[in-house]
Each structure stands twice: as C-alpha cells, then as structure tokens.
Amino acid sequence: MRKLAVVAMVVMALMTTVMALAQDEPAAAPDLKEQTMCPVDNKPIDKAFFADHEGFRVYFCSQACVDAFKAEPAKYMEALKGVKLEAAPAAPAAEPAAEPKTE
Ligand SMILES: [Zn+2]
Questions:
Q1: Near ion ligand 1, which residues have CB within 5 Å?
Q2: In this structure, which of 29, 38, 61, 91 has its CB flanked by the most CB atoms within 10 Å?
Q3: Alpha carbon of 74 to ligand 1 centroid (Å)
Q4: Is the four-CA dihedral 38, 41, 42, 48 of positive or negative sign?
C-alpha cells in the first residue's frame, strides 16, 4: 500500500499547486479600493449621482455634490487618490459603434 500513499501525496501536492495558482489571480491594483464615499462630503455614495471626469466615473451622495465636483473637479479628485474608479463608459451616440465595415 506504499504506492498508494505516494500517489496520494503527489495528488495532494498537485492540488496544492493548482490551488496556489488559482489564488494567484491578477490583482492589478491591490492598494486601490472601490469608491464607497462621496469625495465632496465623505458620505456613502448613491450611484444615481455621478460625473465622468478624465475617463473615470465618480460617484456622489447627492446632485449637489455632483455640481460641486463639476465646479472644481481637481480639488475633489485629490480626495479620490487611492480609490479605484470605474472607467467612464464611452460617450453615447457621438459616433456609431466601431464596427468593421467594408464599404
Ligand atoms: Zn456628497
């Protein structure tokens, strides 16, 4: 039964390796966390209120904060350092979707 024990150990070692690899997922920015707080007054965000700035979508707690941000975006972007911002969706309807066309 020693062979079985060896096989079992090899299988365990393989599984450990596979699990280690599986956990090694691309953590692109481990120091960044999702935005949860409004950069204007540090209250929890409501995703109904947002503004797109330099390709990023920033969320706020109220429309008043959206307006405040739009007035001075640079000031509030400072508060978002270290926060992982969502990419702003491409501007709608500016151009038709980039589909390959032969004509
Ligand atoms: Zn706010």
A1: 38, 40-41, 43, 60-61, 65
A2: 38
A3: 16
A4: negative
Task: Quote the ligand 1 centre to 69 CA distance (angstroms).
Answer: 9
Helices H / strands E in the chain, number of each:
3, 5
- Beta strand pairing status for 86-87 and 56-60? antiparallel
Token pair 């008043």 is at which residue? Answer: 64
Alpha helix ranges (H) inside the chain: 2-23, 63-71, 73-79
Spell out the per-residue pLDDT of the chain, length 103, in tens.
567 776 667 667 766 655 665 666 555 546 789 999 999 999 999 999 999 999 999 999 999 999 999 999 999 999 999 999 999 998 665 555 566 666 6
Radius of gyration of the chain (CA): 24
Q: What are phi and psi of 19, to 5 degrees?
A: -65, -40
Strand partners, 57: 52, 86
Domain-wise residue ranges, the chain: 33-87
